[in-house]
Every structure is written in structure tokens, then in C-alpha cells.
């Protein structure tokens, strides 16, 4: 019920249920997950300071209960560092991303698809930091993994091309941006996603790039 309320945007009601569950949690592992869900709700409400305290509680419990290289810990770090990015604490965020990547490489593999999501987030972080070379590096890492492990028309691959196209656009390389967004559009058209939000965004960016190259 709480997850349904969250998806519907009823954040206060969802938080109320999670808070009630927290008082009845039977073990620390369950409590850590509940703290995590409450943190996500707080972030979606735009309140980032309080979730930082919830993160510290969850992190302490997870580090006690899980092994140092447990894949769940990698997922936790990858999600929580987005909060620090929103808070503007880029160094803290980068530190957590690196932890997530390190754990994932050990517990999964060097090129596991889950790593692509982390690389996307790191690329976005470097974008905020103004380091476009690093931004491109991590977007391309994500793209290479998806090319190897996803089908050629997978929406994740379209997202990679979108990210790369946006990066080139910001750098003023409109031709490369146009090429990347064109690849993304082809995928969205193939999977009949022409009414989706990602397709609309990609089409808009493609037109911007085309006008710049016109």
C-alpha cells in the first residue's frame, strides 16, 4: 500500500505508513530499509537535510548487517548519493558513487548492467561539477556496457545516447549532439515509444541540434 501511495504521489500518506511500520519493525535490517524508503519520500518532497540523517542511520545498520562487498550495499550507496548531489555536496556524492562502483565490480562483474546506472549518475554529477570530459567518460562507459549486454533497441541504450547528446550540446558540438540524439530517436521509434516523455524530450533536443547545424 505504501509503495502504491508513493507512486501516486501521496507522499505524506506513504510516509505515515512507513513511520508506523518503523515502530513495529522486528529487526535492524527491516528498520534500515524503512529509513531508506522514508528518505526517498523526503527527497521527493524536496526536503534534503532531514534525509541525510536518515541515511546515516541506514548506513550504520547496513554496514553492520551486510558484508563489505554485498551488492545491496552498492545499490544503497548508488541511490543515496543522489541526495548529496541535490544538497550540493558533490565530494560526498562522488565518494559514495566510487564505493558503489567498487562493490559492484567485486560482487557482480566489471561490466554488469547495474554498473551502467551508476556510471550515468556519475556522469550527471560531473556535469554539475562542470567537468564535461569526465561527464563524457562515464556516459560512454554506461553506453559500452549497454551495447554489450542490452538488445540494440533497448530504452536504456536510447537514454545513453540522450545523455551523450546533451553533453555535446552543452559543449557546443552540435553535430555530434545531433548524431547522438538521432540514434536515440531511432530506438524510441523502434519500440513504439513515440508518446513517451523520453521520446518527446529527445525529439526536442534533436530539433534544437538540427537548428544549430542548419
TrEMBL record:
Q: Please state what the protein is called.
A: Kinesin light chain
- Keywords attached to this entry: Repeat, TPR repeat
Q: Where are the TPR repeats?
A: 74-107, 158-191
InterPro entries on file: TPR-like_helical_dom_sf, TPR_rpt
Could you name the domain of life of the organism this protein comes from?
A: Eukaryota
Cite the SUPFAM superfamilies for this sequence.
TPR-like
